[in-house]
Amino acid sequence: MVKKSKKHTITIPDVPDETREKLLEHAAKRNESLEEYVLLQLNSIADGGWHTGWVPAHEAVEKARARLEKNPTYVSAETIVEAIHQDRR
User: Fold this and answer.
1) Under 8 Å CB-to-CB from 56, ≥6 apart: which residues?
2) Disulfide: which of 3, 23, 45, 77 matches 50 by Cβ 3.0-4.6 Å?
3) How far apart are the C-alpha atoms of 35 and 1, rounded to whole Å?
4) Which residues contact 46 (CB under 8 A, 6 or more apart)?
5) Are 27 and 36 in contact (CB under 8 A)?
6) What one-character-per-residue DSSP string does the chain give?
7) Per-residue model confidence as pLDDT tens digits over 13-53
8) What angle do CA 24, 25, 30 make, to 5 degrees?
9) How far, in Å, CA of 37 to CA of 42, rounded?
């Protein structure tokens, strides 16, 4: 039997306008509402995805794509699979 989790509401007082605007921009880039975006970020933090220097996934992907455009790199599927296997050992 799957246990349904109870939904909760979080209210954050005194959010600066600049912070709200930045969050809205990030949400818009992902075609999400502010609430959807913030909930995904909270879930990521709760799952241990947050650390000093953390950036949202879409920003990391954008930066990686920009780096790849400047310096094209080829890595074979075999190399990737081997790296994954070594990481799991």
Assistant:
1) 26, 41
2) 45
3) 30
4) none
5) yes
6) -PPPPPP-----TT--HHHHHHHHHHHHHTT--HHHHHHHHHHHHHTT---TT---HHHHHHHHHHHHHHS-----HHHHHHHHHHHH-
7) 999 999 999 999 999 999 999 999 999 888 888 877 655 56
8) 95
9) 9
Question: Would you state the pLDDT for residue 49?
Answer: 65
Average pLDDT, the chain: 85
CA 69, CA 54: separation in Å to the nearest integer?
Answer: 23
Q: Output b/e per residue, 26-59; b: 16+ Cβ within 10 A.
A: bbeeeeeeeeebbeebeeeeeeeeeeeeeebeee
Instruction: Identify residue 5 by its one-letter amino acid code.
Output: S
Output the pLDDT for position 57. 79
Q: Is the pLDDT of residue 60 over 60?
A: yes
